[in-house]
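Budget justification aside, the reviewers requested a transparent look at the raw inputs and outputs of the sequence design task funded under Objective 1. We therefore reproduce one unedited record. The lines immediately below are the structure tokens for a 280-residue chain.
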């Protein structure tokens, strides 16, 4: 299968990332990032999300059109603002604050979006506190022809407790979580969950690489060393490449290597995506 045959749909947040020390702005949010990186892999990307009727929202629409990302399911809200977040780099790792995500908090899947997802070969969503409603909708859908992936994130201030995986994980094919390698308790929980429920669990371990638990097997992948400027988009880049490669090959090791290669490229530049915007 060629990547050009793959229909990839990202569900979740579109967010403007404001790097306060550098005074730079980038298109971001996990839905945009994963759709963008999938497009680089020649997938046909779609986004299900919401933006405000403002300059940031208009910039998202304009750039998505340029990138051939389908915007049909990006809902424009007249009375709310496009999501924003401030980013501060510390030793090349991001710290996040002043998150404004009101626009996505009550967002649910519309009927047309549920029908469209039946045509997607890969559908991916992320769970934050702010995206739980749309994530829950996604997990509850029966999509037998779709590879369903859910990222339970690792930004603990904005993510849910581990029991969210028990609540929503059964509605997914692939479960993703970012953890520290010394978090043995949660790694053990995820291994048990994978084995008990026949799920593929992908754990992103930052500088310590990645793990996959699937069918009572353990797969490991080391990082590829590269110049590190900003790790913000490494997880989304890895996930996009992993999902696309796995869908094509059904080979976990190849998918982990592809994800690692993509992440190594992304960390060498500023921004979770390289899509810097001019707000003047």
């Amino acid at each position: 299968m060629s990547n050009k045959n793959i229909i990839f749909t990202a569900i979740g947040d579109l967010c403007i990332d404001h790097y306060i020390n550098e005074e730079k702005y980038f298109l971001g949010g996990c839905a945009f990032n994963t759709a963008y990186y999938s497009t680089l892999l020649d997938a046909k990307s779609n986004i299900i999300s919401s933006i405000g009727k403002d300059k940031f929202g208009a910039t998202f629409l304009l750039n998505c059109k340029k990138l051939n990302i389908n915007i049909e399911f990006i809902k424009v809200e007249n009375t709310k603002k496009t999501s924003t977040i401030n980013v501060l780099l510390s030793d090349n790792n991001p710290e996040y604050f002043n998150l404004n995500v009101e626009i996505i908090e009550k967002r649910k899947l519309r009927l047309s979006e549920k029908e469209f997802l039946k045509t997607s070969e890969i559908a991916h969503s992320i769970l934050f506190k702010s995206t739980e409603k749309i994530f829950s909708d996604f997990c509850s859908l029966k999509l037998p022809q779709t590879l369903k992936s859910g990222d339970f994130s690792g930004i603990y201030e904005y993510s849910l407790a581990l029991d969210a995986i028990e609540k929503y994980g059964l509605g997914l094919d692939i479960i993703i979580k970012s953890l520290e390698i010394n978090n043995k308790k949660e790694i053990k929980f995820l291994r048990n969950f994978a084995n008990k429920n026949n799920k593929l669990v992908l754990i992103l371990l930052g500088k310590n690489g990645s793990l996959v638990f699937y069918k009572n097997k353990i797969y490991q992948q080391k990082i590829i060393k590269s110049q590190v400027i900003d790790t913000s988009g490494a997880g989304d880049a890895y996930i996009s490449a992993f999902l696309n490669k796995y869908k094509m090959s059904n080979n976990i090791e190849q998918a982990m290597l592809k994800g690692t290669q993509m992440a190594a490229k992304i960390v060498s530049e500023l921004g979770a995506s390289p899509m810097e915007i001019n707000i003047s």
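The chain has one domain: 3-271. The chain has a mean pLDDT of 95. Computational costs for records of this kind are itemized in the attached budget.
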